[in-house]
Amino acid sequence: MEIQTYAALCAAALLLMPAAVLSAQNGPGIFEASADVGPVLHAGKTEYDATAQTYRLSGSGANIWFAKDEFHYAYKKVSGDCIVQARGRLLGKGVDPHRKFGWMLRAGLDTSAAMVSATVHGDGLTAIQYRKRSGMNIEEVKSPVRMPDVIQLERRGRSFLLSVARFGEPFWTVEVPDFDLPETLYAGLFICSHNKDAVETAEFDNVRVIIPAKPDFRPYRDYIGSHIEVLDVATGARKVLHSAPNSLQAPNWTPDDKALIYNSEGLIYRFDLETNKPAPLNTGAIRQNNNDHVLSFDGKMLGLSSSSGDPKYGSMIYAVPTEGGVPVQITPTGPSYLHGWSPDGKWLSYTAQRDGDYDIYKIKSKGGREVRLTTSPGLDDGAEYSPDGKYIYFNSMRSGSMQLWRMKSNGREQEQLTDDAFNNWFPHVSPDGKWVLFLSYAPDIAPDDHPFYKHVYLRLMPAPEKGKIGKPKVVAYIYGGQGSINVPSWAPDSRRAAFVSNSD
């Protein structure tokens, strides 16, 4: 699949959402307000398309430079650490090559306020630009990436980090330390024409203002909020379907295209895609479910991984009708973590710890004897069947880092699919068998760990064909990790996928 440009995205109008006319809103989208900063000659405006969750900013302004700024701003207040993300582009040819757009974190709305901005110019120049104190001249650090469309700015304590990429590529990042800015800042998108007589326009999608987990949060004890999102894998366009202040994890997409199945605080929920409302699913006495749950290919059964209540065994695997009911125990012992269901419905594939090591096993879907499929030392995980039933895809750290692998469904012919700097987890094969979507962590994360609340990528690669292995491309830049995409989450049309991102 050729990853399309942002312009192609606009032309495609997003397969996952209907077309909508841009309309001005009071309090545009996630922002509290919009306004012009500085003595601009032409009033700017912010328009928000609530259906597509996109923004259009138009504005004037002589410049953002030296000791004063003139621009149009859509903003909200944030306190402490934050991450702001968007994908954007300038519209039209433009009057001045230094017209600019991006993100800005600002101490106030006066023209000379202290600020930090992630700035992309019309000629492609990209930089983190900053005024450390009110009235000072702006300084900058330039990026080698010219004309990126993915823009991220992060406050981390006394430091600010710029991350930019052309869609499909990993971030380039630079950190500027030692700022003494107020705890509470304005955070928002901006547009500046760099010509006081001109008005310029920029469009943005995938706009997120993220409050990350506290540095001292305790994994698996402290949780932050969640967004269930839908991704158009060809264009990279994302849409938030549902948000909650607690932990939501691992959405399955039902084969009838009517619902998502996810877990939260030990329970399983069904999220209706027509009403956009969740409802708990009856799983009887099994009420400590984790994020390793899988639907059968025909959609009739749901496999669960849940604490058995016995510390000796830990997680066990159960099966229940998709509409809910009394679960039946499948695995004879634990710990066991479900990841796949064979297309013919006869087998379950899972990760299990036996004799101190984690390997891939399979078992009849009605229960029975376990069949061990991998024997390499170290963690093997995420075992999922291909739609034709010929292969099981999984991730393994046998090469030193966590990489994607696949094998025949009988465990033979194990072959490595990725070999790069990232730690790659949870390969999910599209229903049409053509694509593999997976989660990638940075190299500084331990290869046998997939923690919550990190900067991660969702990446896409062609399914191997006749010995040819394609190159992965980034299709989503998210704050998440554990629980984001642990389970098969493709839509039946093989064009969309569901996942979870996080913010406090």
Descriptive overview:
The chain has 504 residues and is mostly beta strands. The chain has two domains: 6-210, Jelly Rolls, CATH 2.60.120.200; 248-503, 6 Propeller (Neuraminidase). It is built from one helix and 39 strands. Strands 1-6-15-8-9-10-11 form a seven-stranded antiparallel beta sheet, with no helix packed on it. A seven-stranded antiparallel beta sheet has the order 2-3-16-7-12-13-14, with no helix packed on it. A four-stranded antiparallel beta sheet has the order 19-20-21-22, with no helix packed on it. The chain starts with 5 loop residues before the first helix and ends with a strand. The model is unreliable at 1-25 (pLDDT under 50).
Key words describing this protein structure:
504 residues; mainly beta; Jelly Rolls; seven-stranded antiparallel β-sheet; 1 helix
CATH architecture identity of the largest domain: 6 Propeller
The major pleated sheet works out as: 7 strands, antiparallel
| Helical stretch tally | 1
Quick one: CATH superfamily of the largest domain?
TolB, C-terminal domain
Strands ordered across the widest β-sheet: 1-6-15-8-9-10-11
Question: For the terminal residues, how far apart are their CA atoms?
Answer: 34 Å
Query: What is the quaternary state of this protein?
Result: single chain
Mean pLDDT: 94
Approximately what portion of the residues adopt beta-strand conformation? over 45%
* Number of distinct beta strands: 39
Q: Give the class from helix and strand content and strand pairing.
A: mainly beta
Gross morphology is elongated
At the fold tier of CATH, the topology name of the largest domain is Neuraminidase
Please tell me the total number of domains: 2
Uncertain segments are 1-25
CATH class value of the largest domain: Mainly Beta
